[in-house]
Structure formats: C-alpha cells, structure tokens
C-alpha cells in the first residue's frame, strides 16, 4: 500500500495521540481531540498501511493573524522501519505549507527542539532563525532575544547558557509561504 500523507481522520485519533505523546507533546486524549478539531486542515498524519508513522500539526498564531505555528512534526524513529532521515519529514512539511497557503496565511513559525539535527532540518527546509529563547527549570521564559543569523545565534545561545544555566535555549524559526 505504501506511505500516504493525509489530513487527520477521526479513525486516526488513537494512534495519532499515542504517537504524538511518544515523540512530541503529552496531553490527555480529550485535550488532543479538542485541539485536533479546533483547527481542521492543520493536522496531518503519515500512514503506512494502517499504521501512523508521522504527524505534522499546527495552529493559527495568537500574536500574528497572518501566521501559523507549527506545533509539532515527527517521524517514527524505529531504526528497523527506516522512516527517519528518508525525506518523510520534509514531505509532511510541504503538505503542511500548502495547507497553510490555501488557508491564506503567509508565515509559519516554529520553536525548534534544542537539537542540532532538528535545527538543521528547519534550515534545510527554508526556515530562518528570528529569536532565541532561554527557558528555566519549569519552562518559564528567562530571556528572549532577536537573532536572525544561525551562526551568531549558536554563539549567543552559549552566552545564554552561561548566564542562566537554563533547562534549554531554543531557536524560533520562521518561513514565509506566500
């Protein structure tokens, strides 16, 4: 049958929720369903046969009416299944970008995991850094600074780490999709 990227369907809810909780954000099933239903057209799954092997989802920005936040994107990392590093994330991102454009949004923003591979994924896919955010032990925001150059942002991140000893310092990336 092969892999297919499509909008989340109600029949996918259990698998998509379990997948999301394993790879991205933990939330109750009820909260997952509420969120998935609140932004129809912005939650995609990749299925291989009947198995959910990837998710990509977002929501309209509360700060910028022309922007969407990419809240999560992940691919099954089971090395025996060969989904990771095979272009599936990029394919899901393209489908998501097209949906964002069709809905009339102009920008996608995303907070990257504090991980060089994740950051490289966003850079490779045309995202540019716009900020760095340092978070404390309880995920409280310690400092937010403008940063539009990745190389200098790496240096600035180290400064923020020395200054705060934070839980993490993440890049906020943005991409125009007009």
Low-pLDDT regions: none
Largest sheet: 8 strands, mixed
Q: Determine the N-to-C terminus distance.
A: 34 Å
Order of helices and strands: EHHEEEHEHEEHE
**CATH topology grouping of the largest domain:** Aminopeptidase
The CATH class assignment of the largest domain is Alpha Beta
CATH architecture of the largest domain: 3-Layer(aba) Sandwich
Classify the helix fraction into a percent range.
25-40%
Query: What sort of overall outline do the alpha carbons produce when their principal axes are compared?
Result: globular
**Mean pLDDT rating:** 94
Oligomer state equals single chain
Describe the strand arrangement of the main beta sheet, using strand numbers.
1-2-3-4-5-8-6-7
Rounded to an integer in angstroms, the radius of gyration calculated over CA atoms is 17 Å
Helix/strand class:
alpha+beta
List the total number of helices: 5
Number of strands: 8
CATH homologous superfamily title of the largest domain: Gcn5-related N-acetyltransferase (GNAT)
- Return the domain count: 2
Portion of residues in beta strands equals 25-35%
Task: Please tag this protein with its features.
178 residues; Aminopeptidase; 33% strand
Structure explained in plain terms:
There is one protein chain. This protein is α+β, with helices and mostly antiparallel strands. It folds into two domains: 1-58 and 73-105, Aminopeptidase; 108-178. It is built from five helices and eight strands; from the N terminus they run βααβββαβαββαβ. The protein has helices at 13-23, 29-38, 88-102, 116-124, 150-164; strands spanning 3-7, 43-48, 51-60, 67-75, 107-111, 128-135, 141-146, 168-176. The longest helix is centred in the middle third of the chain and has 15 residues, at 88-102.
